[in-house]
Amino acid sequence: SGRSCDWYLECLHKKYPCSETGDDYALTYATKFCKFYEKYYSEFSMDGQKWVDSVRKCLQVSLVPYIRPYSHLSCTEVKKVAFGSHVPCYVE
User: Fold this and answer.
1) Organism's domain of life (predicted)?
2) What residues does each domain of the chain span?
3) Which pLDDT score is estimated for 89?
4) Measured between alpha carbons, how far is residue 24 from residues 51, 76, 83, 88 in Å?
5) Which long-range contacts (CB under 8 A, 24 or more apart) does 58-67 make?
6) Per-block average pLDDT, block size 10, for the chain (92 residues)?
7) Burial (CB count within 10 angstroms: exposed 0-12, middle 13-18, buried 19+), residue 18
């Protein structure tokens, strides 16, 4: 849905529990920065809040195809795909 930072743990990390690989995007990067924006959300202007909401949704939606039952990526591939979505999500 793109509304909650919990998506990374409840969906992405559940499908790709990469904690011990060093490539755990869901825990080490996505959740950390999502929570950071969440913590300071009220300090953003209305336009800033819209941007935060749309970036969060874009980042999560871009990963949905990879949590389907038929999708099987390595932890390194998940991290690469996730980071590949950052520029388009942050600037569009």
Assistant:
1) Eukaryota
2) 7-91
3) 95
4) 25, 8, 12, 21
5) 58/2, 58/85, 58/88, 58/89, 58/92, 59/2, 59/30, 59/85, 59/86, 59/89, 60/1, 60/2, 60/7, 60/8, 61/2, 62/88, 62/89, 63/12, 66/15, 67/11, 67/12, 67/14, 67/15, 67/16
6) 88 89 82 94 97 96 94 92 93 89
7) buried
